[in-house]
Amino acid sequence: MLGKSFNQIEISRSALRHNYKLLKQLARTKTRLLAMVKADAYGHGMLESSLAFSEAGCHDFGVAEIAEAVELRKSGIEGNIFVFLGFAAADVSLFFSYDLIPIIYDIESARILSSEAVTQNVEITVHVKVDCGMTRLGIMPDEFEEFVAVLQTLPGIKYGGLASHFPRADEPESSQTREQFLRFECLGVSESKVPELVAHTANSGGILYFPDSSCSMVRAGISLYGYYPDGETGVERATGEKLQPAMRFKTKVLQVKTVTKGTGVSYGHTYITDKETTIAVLPVGYEDGLSRSLSNKGEVLIHGKRASVIGRICMNLCMIDVSDIDSVQAGDEVVLLGRQQSDEITGDAIANLMGSISYEILCLFGNNNQRTYVE
């Protein structure tokens, strides 16, 4: 893209490294920590984030689709790269060309991989996904023994790992996660029984709130980027060293104008000024990830103070009320996410206004704006 956008996402590499190291400390000593970098690293940039995690000691990375894995490998990322959403038969050779690890959940995929392995006269390691309670991808527990028995008859296939996923690990008080982990353990994945098998089911919530579920590997997602899976409750619950949000979203004031009482603002005039009002116009809208649902209720920081979004958020513009903030002018920095002076707007706070979660906010902002990286 030519030129620099008014809207800039700043990603802190040091925060990414801090979060990885902190989570590694929370996991068991010999437990591997896989960094989930799917969805362009939750809006933080897949390659740059992977490099930061590598610098912190990461050797295992997870993506959703094979194209992401190929991009990582082509960019020089070393270590293990796991592909979690399966693959199209036409793409099977990419696993071998780029040394990738497939997570499989059906026997047909295993047969396709086996055929390609035989053709290339090599062996490929696969991990099996089991649905122990997420009700998403994965074979059912009662199908597991038969599935593995068939898998182990296929030439060129090495059964190297078993995976599942927790749906409620962000609820520390829930008994469901412990019950689900027992179902996972009953599949015979304990290190004493199969020491070479890589077992992984704990996500961010598992690492933070259910450390006994660590197994031989854990998978960190949202926590790597500085957010707790249970939102503001997690921040309040955390003791000692805390996760550090890595993303900051800033823009600039385009224009400042003063209007009289009774003036309608933006499409539909859903906001009518109740007094003489000073309005700052910002070059950010729903195309840039600032959800239209934040109209008349979102907030930003300018001169270290909070200003309210007024009127409907447009595709590329929105308006804020700066009547109580002195000397606002075109070119002033405005922060939509992150810290400015002594105040901070978090992804959790924005998510609460939208009835959503921090994951969505980070993806919306990070994947729709220019990113720069700072220490």
Can you tell me about this structure?
This protein has 375 residues and is an alpha/beta fold. Helix content is 28%, strand content 25%. The chain has 12 helices and 20 strands. Strands 1, 10, 11, 14, 15, 16, 17, 18, 19 and 20 form a 10-stranded mixed sheet that branches. An 8-stranded parallel sheet has the order 8-7-6-5-4-3-2-9. A two-stranded antiparallel ribbon has the order 12-13. Strand 3, helix 4 and strand 4 form a beta-alpha-beta unit. The longest helix is centred in the first third of the chain and has 14 residues, at 13-26. The radius of gyration is 24 Å and the shape is elongated. The chain starts with 7 loop residues before the first strand and ends with a strand.
Observed structural traits:
375 residues; alpha/beta; TIM Barrel; Lyase, Ornithine Decarboxylase, Chain A, domain 1; 2 domains; 10-stranded mixed sheet; 12 helices
Distance between the termini: 24 Å
Rg:
24 Å
Q: Count the helices. How many? A: 12
What would the average pLDDT be, to the nearest integer?
96
User: How many strands, which pairing sense, and closed or not: the largest β-sheet?
Assistant: 10 strands, mixed
Name the overall outline. Answer: elongated
CATH architectural label of the largest domain: Alpha-Beta Barrel
Structural class: alpha/beta
